[in-house]
């Protein structure tokens, strides 16, 4: 009478939200009456559990193996962890009209429902929250302000900045005696 591999129930893919507990506890049996041990690949622990946390969002391929010490059977399942992160929300920023050589300072405000720390990035006409215009900046420009949280959530708005041309005093060139 030869040893037969243990049987393992067919695994069903799982979907949970961040911060939820995952528990994989499949039915396994051995037709020969041998003791069956279960093992799990990461991110599950040795007991088939995972306490998910914020930032764990993604898809994970997990293998569950039932072994009688000699023969084994494995099943694959996909664990999907859904993000519970909410994007920060920027307050509106008024468009600006300034003169050449004026200093522009943007002070964006963003709310984050998860109370995550929010940082700001700037692109386009300005690459930081402050810029002193020059006599070459006359015209209409756009700055994109983006609020970012540590979990990848973001919100962006465009701010239009009109820089007025300022008349300069004439310069006398080539004066000779």
Describe the protein.
The chain is an all-beta fold and 177 residues long. It contains no helices and 16 strands. Strands 2-8-7-5 form a four-stranded mixed β-sheet, with no helix packed on it. The protein has a four-stranded mixed β-sheet with strand order 10-16-15-13, with no helix packed on it. Strands 1-4 form a two-stranded antiparallel ribbon. It is rod-shaped. The model has no long low-confidence stretch (mean pLDDT 94).
SSE topology:
Elements: E1 7-8, E2 14-17, E3 21-23, E4 28-29, E5 37-40, E6 49-51, E7 58-67, E8 72-82, E9 89-90, E10 96-99, E11 103-105, E12 110-111, E13 118-124, E14 130-132, E15 139-149, E16 154-164
Parallel strand pairs: 2-8, 10-16
Antiparallel strand pairs: 1-4, 3-6, 5-7, 7-8, 9-12, 11-14, 13-15, 15-16
Globular, elongated, flat, extended or rod-shaped: what is the shape? rod-shaped
Alpha-carbon distance between the two ends? 120 Å
Number of strands: 16
Query: Which strand-content bin applies to the residues?
Result: over 45%
Relative helix content: under 10%
Alpha-beta content class: mainly beta
Biggest β-sheet: strands ordered side by side in the sheet: 2-8-7-5
Q: How large is the radius of gyration? A: 31 Å
Characterize the biggest β-sheet: 4 strands, mixed
Low-confidence blocks of residues: none
Mean pLDDT across all amino acids = 94
Please write the string of helix (H) and strand (E) elements.
Answer: EEEEEEEEEEEEEEEE
Oligomer: single chain
Number of helices: 0
Outline:
The chain is mainly beta. The protein contains no helices and 16 strands.
């Amino acid at each position: 009478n030869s040893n037969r591999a243990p049987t393992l129930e067919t695994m069903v893919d799982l979907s949970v939200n961040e911060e939820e507990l995952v528990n994989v506890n499949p039915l396994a049996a051995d037709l020969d009456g041998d003791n069956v041990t279960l093992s799990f690949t990461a991110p599950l622990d040795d007991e088939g559990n995972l306490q998910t946390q914020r930032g764990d969002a993604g898809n994970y391929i997990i293998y569950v193996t039932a072994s009688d010490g000699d023969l084994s059977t494995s099943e694959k399942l996909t664990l999907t962890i859904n993000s519970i992160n909410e994007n920060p929300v920027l307050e509106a920023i008024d468009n600006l009209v300034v003169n050449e050589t004026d200093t522009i300072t943007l002070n964006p405000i963003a709310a984050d429902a998860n109370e995550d720390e929010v940082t700001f990035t700037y692109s386009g006409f300005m690459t930081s929250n402050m810029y002193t215009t020059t006599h070459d900046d006359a015209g209409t420009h756009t700055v994109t302000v983006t609020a970012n949280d540590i979990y990848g959530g973001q919100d962006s708005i465009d701010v239009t900045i009109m820089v007025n041309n300022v008349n300069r005093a004439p310069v006398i060139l080539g004066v000779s005696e």
